[in-house]
Amino acid sequence: MEFREATASDTEVLRSMARESVKASYASFLDEETIDDALAQWYGGDATRDLVESEDSVVLLAVDDGRPVGFSQSEIVGDRETAGHIHWLHVRPDERGAGLGSRLLTRTREALLDEGAEGVRGFVLAGNEDGNRFYDEHGFERAGTRSIRIGDETHTENVYVESDVADAEWRAIEARELADGTTAYVSYGEAARGSQAPFYAAYESTDEDERYGWFCGNCDTLDNAMDSMGRIACNVCGNKRKATRWDASYL
């Protein structure tokens, strides 16, 4: 089994495997139209090529006897705390059950640490029983949850960290006073990759019950706009976040 970094020449292979993997794992609780729309959003057009060529992304391809059999999609985020976020572990349906997912997770973790990550997190929909069990069986513990949009619905996504740090405060909240005198609480552990610097989730209180908006890590402002597809654009410095993935999980 060979594990290597994916390149632009692997774009079609990655897109094909993602489609097989997602359809096999989510057809039981997501309708076909939602899955097709999400795949088109995250892997359609130039999205896959951009992902492979991004400096912050780590895309690891597994090849067995010349045949691609799976890949992982991760990213390095944060500036105060550098973390490796594992968004997807895709395994071809006919290759599951033989330990490939475990090997892919292990090699992905090593790659993220080599890239400077201080810790590794995995994300999985609460409804994905296999994905949650996978992280639990591989030394991860659920550290929290967050809400994500899939189509017109809101779903809960579980956040997993390795068990030796699972009891630590993974969000690292900091109070930031705004120009109008109000205070927002920025969660530096809840980051989203931007074109110039990460965006961080900001809340109205330390309870993190009410989202205030997104804090731009490039110019330290909350003056930005977010559309229904998860795209964020900072109105001050132009920092941008592309349309967000709709799920991140072991598949």
Describe it.
The structure is a single chain. The chain has 251 residues and is of the alpha+beta class. It has 2 domains: 2-167 and 245-250, Gcn5-related N-acetyltransferase (GNAT) (Aminopeptidase, 3-Layer(aba) Sandwich), CATH 3.40.630.30; 173-241, no CATH class. Helix content is 24%, strand content 38%. Strands 1, 2, 3, 4, 5, 6, 7 and 15 form an 8-stranded mixed β-sheet that branches. Strands 8-9-10-11 form a 4-stranded antiparallel β-sheet, with no helix packed on it. It has a 3-stranded antiparallel β-sheet with strand order 12-13-14, with no helix packed on it. A hairpin with a 6-residue loop joins strand 9 and strand 10 (199-203). Helix 1 (11-26) runs antiparallel to helix 2. The two termini are 19 Å apart.
Produce a short descriptive summary.
The chain is an alpha+beta fold. It is 24% helix and 38% strand. Strand 2 and strand 3 form a beta hairpin.
- Quote the average pLDDT: 85
Supply the number of structural domains. Answer: 2
Any idea of the CATH class of the largest domain? Alpha Beta
Q: What portion of residues belong to β-strands?
A: 35-45%
- How would you classify the helix and strand content by structural class? alpha+beta
Fraction of residues in H or I helices: 10-25%
Order of helices and strands: EHHHEEEHEHEEEEEEEEEE
Oligomer: single chain
Number of strands: 15
Largest sheet: 8 strands, mixed
The outline comes out as globular
Topology-level CATH name of the largest domain = Aminopeptidase
Low-confidence stretches: 246-251
Radius of gyration: 18 Å
